[in-house]
Every structure is written in C-alpha cells, then in structure tokens.
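So, can you check this one?
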Amino acid sequence: MGSMTRLGQGITPLESNVKSLHIRISRNGVHGFRTPPHLYRFGRQKCKSIVPIQIEPNNDGILKPEIQWCGIKPRRSLGCRASSADAGTGDLHGNIGNDFRSEVGIVKEEATNGGPKGMAEAFDISPRTALGITAVIAISVLVLPMYMPSSGVGMTLRTRGLSYLTLLLGFYMAWNIGANDVANAMGTSVGSGALTLRQAVLTAAVLEFSGAFMVGSHVSHTMQSGILTPSVFAGKETLLFCGMLSSLGAAGTWLQVASYFGWPVSTTHCIIGAMVGFGLVYGGVGAVYWKSLFRVVSSWVVSPLLGAFVSFLVYKCIRRFVYRAPNPGQAAATAAPLAVFLGVAALSFTVLPTQGVGLMAGGKALGLGLLGAVIINIVIRRQLGELLGAYCELPSEEEQQGKASRDEGPKGTQLKIVYSVFGYLQVLSACFMSFAHGANDVANAIGPISAALAILHKTGVASGGPPSMPVDVLAWGGFGIVAGLVVWGYRVIATIGQKITELTPTRGFAAEFAAATVVVLASRLGLPISATHTLVGAVMGVGFARGLNSVRTDVVREIVASWVVTIPVGAALSVAYTFIFIKLIPSLV
C-alpha cells in the first residue's frame, strides 16, 4: 500500500458563491476542490487504487470530507473526474487542515467549464510528448497530399497546386469535425466514467476512421451533388470551385471557434449553411437544390426528437426490467446479449453491401449480431463472480443525485453488478456511436473536397458524369477527423459528457445506443443528419426519463443558441471567403 496523506483539522467557510470545486491529491497534499454532493474518483494509470471523496458543508459551513481510503502510490499528481466509482477498504474521516489551506484555491464554475487546459494535461502526458505528436501530425498534413492520387499527379503544376490547397482545406474541415464532434461519440462514456479520456480518444480514433472509410461514401454523395445545382454554374467553374473551398474554410473556421469555447455545434449545419449561403449569393435561388435541402433539413428536426424518444424508451426499459427486477444484477447480465445483438446486427447491416443481395446481407448481419451476443454473454457470465468481490458499497443512483426517490432501485452489490455490466455495454455503444459518427460526418468534409477536385480534374459532377468518391479522399477525411480528435477533441467532451445531465453507465448506454442507432440508419439512407443534435436529444431523453428537473436547461439553452447562429455564420463566412478566393485564384477555363 502506498503512502497516505493525513488530512488535518479545521477550515473556515469558503466563499458562498463557489459553485464548482476541484480536488487534487499529490505527495504534497490537497490541491483544489469541487462542490458537493458529487462523488469523485481519483487516480489514473499511476494510481494503484481508487479514492472517492464526498464533501458536504456542515451547519457551520465547514467542509467535511469523508474519505474511503484504499491506499495511493502518489508518483505524480492524480487527476479527478466525476464518477459513480467504487470505494476501497477502510475509512479516514476528518476536515481539510489549515496546513493545506495555502494549497487550496477557490475556482468559480466559470473557470472550470473549459476542462483540461492543454493536450498534455488532458491525456496525462508530458508537454514534450504532446508537442511531438502535434509535430508529426503537422508534417504528415503538409507532405501526404503531394503523393495522393487525387492531388492531380501527372497534371499541370497549377492543377496540382490547387488540388493541394483543396486537400489542405478539406483536412482543416475534417480536423475541426474531429475536434468538435468527438463528444458525440465519446462524451457520454467519459462523463459516466466508463472510459478515461485517453481510452476514449484512442478508441474513437480507430472507429471514426473505420466508419469514414467504409460507409462515408453514402452521405458524401449527397453533400457532393445534392445541395447545389451544378448546371447553374455551367461555364463558371472557377466560381463553383471557389465556393467549395470557401464552404470548407468557413465551416472549419466556425467549428474551431466553437471548439475553443466548448460548444457542441453541428458540423452538418455549418457546412450546409456555408454551401447554401454561397449558392444564394453567387448563383441565385435556382442554385440550391431545394427538394434535397428540405429532406436534409427535415432530418435535423426529426433526428434529435427520435434520439430523445429512443433513449427515453431504452432508459425506461432499464429501470423497469433491470432496476426493479428481483435480481437486478442477473437481469442486467441477461439484457446485455440482447443489446449487443441489436447493435452489432444494425452496424453489420450498414457496412455490408445490400444491392442485389439484401436478404443475404441481412442474414449475415443477424449472424454477426448473434455471435456478438454469445461472446458478451460468455464474458459477462465469467466476470460476474469476480465483480461480486471487486467492489465495495456504493450509494444508489438516486443517492448520487442527492435526492430521495420513491423507487431507489438496486443498492450495494446489486448496483455494482448492474453498473459493471452496463460499463461493458457502454464501451460497446461508444464504439457503435463512434463508427456511426465517422460514417455520417466525414461527408461534411470530403463531399466539398470531391466536388472541388471534380471541377479541377474535369471528372464526375463537374463534367456531368456520375459522382465519384476517391478512396484516398475518404481516407484523408478519416485521418483529419482522427487528428482533430487527438489534438483538440478533449475540449468539447465535458459539455455533452457532464453538463447536460449527470450520467452513469446505464444512462450513458441508453443515450449512446439510441443516438448511434438513429445516426447509423441515417447514414445508410444517405441523410447528412446532425450527430450533435441526435446525441444531445438522446442525453436529454435520458434526463426526461429521470424527471424534468434532471435536465440542466441553462446548458441546453446555451447549446441551442450556438446551433441557431451556426447556419447564418457559416453562410456569411462562406460569402466573404468566396470573394477573397475569386480575387486570388486564376480562371480555371
């Protein structure tokens, strides 16, 4: 057992307007703090065990932490994050001592909303390592486009230069998609404690790229040729090319601003708003394919409502058939294979080709779903005995919220088993959501890239032929999403993962499973829906299932406000960028 930091006696009341505290324990003592009644888990890879701490002020306003101590080996500072995590053995009670007072700083809630302040802090790596990762990505971005087939190999120097510029702007857009929309796939998993930030990013990197590369072409065709009418720009290839570049630049700019402030805005809204703004100003009303646009916009309204509805039903089913079961742990273990079967079958059906062999693809999808269900059943059944002894007493879900409930659900060991089972399921649902997000949102970058390259190379849509989707462009978009996710993705995770409503593994699973199902079906239909809207709707659906007071309306209002301004801002930036590009880029005719 590692060394323990003894807490002394006595601390005077803190400022009455303190809303958010952070606690850090290092070999030197206590650093920072966070307001009760949240339960926090301390420890990262360097921590041998878990130290939960709950702080509540007594009648005198003195903070009295109760620490359940397992023992820590404090090789370095240990971060903390909200969790329904589990305690260890042994108790140590006491007040934060005056000798630590100089090391405790008051941090208003506004100052903590941004989460980690840098890539190194977010992933618990050294600044030198973070700088090295960033440098490798930057060099790759500058060098790889020169060797891509879509860069115009064998064409004139001007064409190759413009192709290079197009690929760079496309990467910038994809990078910002990864930086902003990673929260759609992994925010709930991090918020509930099912995954650490580092685990979430590594998992999302693989699944986002896979979804973009394997299924991204379905939605990309809509973005490439279903928003603007190319015939309106016949003989105006330079203008249309500048418009595609401007759309990428405008959407990327707004997404970077939103990522900096932690707003989970819709990348789909941003890029479509930019394209429509360009089309209306430089091509007139006839430049916009209104029928297709109406189909896309209607899906923006339906998707969050559908996500909320599905997550509401899923969480209600969990409460009804798991929490209220005579043996909740056994009920959770029984429900897990069904959830995996549905998720794997839906994902497999999306990936497998169905043209001419729909029944065969459906049979394969069902077979893979059944295989996944069998595997998860074996894993959970084998782990169930270990889980019974792996955790100590936990408060019920309602007790974590600090309010009484008529039906408190499972407690103690049963609750630990339920959370452990759904912890596994939430990791799988996060993978499901990450794949679905990559499949749908990569189109926001590679659709305009493909359209611009078609104009330059006189192929596909620009020449009146069928739309083409180069494989290397799909891979390039996937790489851009992964790069943005690694370098800046941590900034938005906290908003969806922790601020809309408190999340546990069961709630996080319900939200992710519902959102992923809606997004992956939309991807199969070629609808560029907003994954952001869908997941936020799903998280709200879980909150509504717990009661209206469980949803933080102030956070929701801020998110909706950022959504409202996204389309006009994207359109305005696109018009301005087009004006600049027209002056700089020579005629392509």
About this structure: Residues 1-115, 388-407 have pLDDT under 50 and may be disordered. The beta strands are 24-26, 29-31, 40-42, 51-57, 63-68, 80-82, 91-93. Residues 7 and 131 are 37 Å apart (CA to CA). Residues 157-192 form the longest helix (36 residues).
